[in-house]
Specification:
Blueprint (H helix, E strand, L loop, with lengths): L4 E4 L1 H9 L2 H16 L3 E2 L4 E5 L2 E13 L5 E9 L3 H4 L4 E8 L6 E6 L1 H19 L5 E8 L3 H12 L3 E8 L3 H10 L8 E4 L3 H7 L2 E4 L19 E4 L7 H5 L2 E4 L2 H4 L5 H9 L5 E4 H5 L11 E4 L4 H17 L4 E3 L9
Parallel strand pairs: 1-7, 8-9, 8-11, 9-10, 11-12, 12-15, 13-14, 13-15
Antiparallel strand pairs: 1-16, 2-4, 3-4, 4-5, 5-6, 6-7
Helix pairs in contact: 1-4, 1-12, 2-4, 2-12, 4-5, 4-12
Pfam families: OCD_Mu_crystall
Protein name: 2,3-diaminopropionate biosynthesis protein SbnB
GO molecular function, one term: oxidoreductase activity, acting on the CH-NH2 group of donors, NAD or NADP as acceptor
Length: 337
């Protein structure tokens, strides 16, 4: 019996994902399909909150994924918004992977990168399937220009998307300018501009990404979406229920997204049912549901632990194959009884 524990650092995780973004998207696709076929366990996330720091939280996301993945695990991710003022990232995370035969942990991975990558891969997958299996956008709008936005932008371009224009908006103009100057590959676009407000950005774009830290809806006018864009509503709480109720809504998991006052949850509370949901992304990929451009299309993914363990197991396999893990053969001490 092998009791070795592998530790995989952030540099290794980043190198593997950066060099294989197409494969990462396929891993996420496989995880969604395994979940849709019933080969997963994805319990509710558990939130640790602090009375003296109400804006801070640490979240536990346990999950099991079968159907060829055969891995269980737990992501433990902290969100401390005040870190930004300290000059360090808001989020930090680790991922523990467990064997399914004995339950023993076999890997610990730096997971803020895995978390950002699986979120970006999920959105990239959704953009392709909900956009008519096209990898082209006239104008990409990004609201909230932080880490997740950077990963999503890079995933789109590195998986073959052609984007004519990019428009950026952040509550901090400095962050928008920083994103334009340090993240955007300006030679690949006809124009990259900073929008004066969210409304102008939304009106001008056919592919819109929300990656903010909003806790309540701040976009409330359905008329802004009359041109029927595709919206990747990653941050989940930006849009008023009235906007969702006039749109086609695709989610990752219906039960999971209807909680914690997400925009879909608010729409459910307002209407008393879930009939405004078109289906899941897996439903679209399997041909069970469809969308068209007669109304806005909004993808609202709650974020599932199965994606973390799927991407984490893939990164682990790549790291071990390349000899890039730090292996502790004696981490577990008493292994006989």
């Amino acid at each position: 019996m092998d009791f070795a524990l592998s530790i995989i650092n952030g540099q290794t995780v980043s190198d593997i994902i950066r060099g294989n973004r197409d494969e990462c998207v396929e891993i996420v696709r496989g995880a969604y399909l395994a979940h849709a076929s019933g080969h997963s366990v994805n319990p509710d996330s558990h939130f640790l909150r602090f009375p003296d720091k109400p804006d801070c939280r640490i979240i536990a996301l346990p999950a099991y994924l079968g159907d060829g993945f055969e891995v269980a695990g737990l992501k433990w991710i902290a969100s401390y918004p005040g870190n930004v003022q300290r000059g360090i990232p808001r989020a930090s995370a680790v991922l523990v992977l467990n064997r399914c035969d004995t339950g023993y942990p076999f890997a610990i991975l730096e997971s803020s990168i895995i978390s950002a990558a699986r979120t970006a891969a999920s959105a990239t997958l959704a953009a392709y399937w909900l956009g008519g299996r096209s990898r082209r956008a006239h104008s990409l709008g990004i609201v909230g220009t932080g880490l997740i936005a950077r990963y999503l932008y890079e995933f789109l371009l590195d998986t073959g998307w052609a984007i004519d224009e990019v428009r950026l908006y952040d509550r901090s103009p400095v962050e928008s300018e920083k994103f334009r100057n340090t993240v955007c590959r300006r030679e690949q676009h006809a124009a990259v501009t900073v929008a004066p407000d969210t409304a102008e950005l939304v009106r001008a774009c056919d592919l819109i990404v929300f990656t903010t830290v909003a806790s309540t809806p701040h976009v409330v006018d359905p008329a802004l979406f009359e041109h029927n864009p595709l919206v990747l509503h990653i941050s989940l709480r930006d849009l008023a229920p009235e906007i969702l109720l006039r749109s086609q809504n695709v989610v990752d998991d219906v039960d999971h997204v209807m909680k914690a006052n997400t925009s879909p949850h608010l729409a459910e509370q307002q209407t008393g049912d879930r009939s405004f949901v078109t289906g899941t992304l897996a439903d679209i990929m399997l041909g069970r549901r469809s969308v068209d451009r007669s109304r806005p299309i909004i993808f609202s993914p709650f974020g599932m632990g199965i994606l973390d363990v799927a991407v984490g197991k893939w990164v682990y396999d790549q790291a071990v194959a390349g000899g890039r893990d730090m292996r502790l053969a004696d981490f577990f001490y008493e292994v006989a009884r």
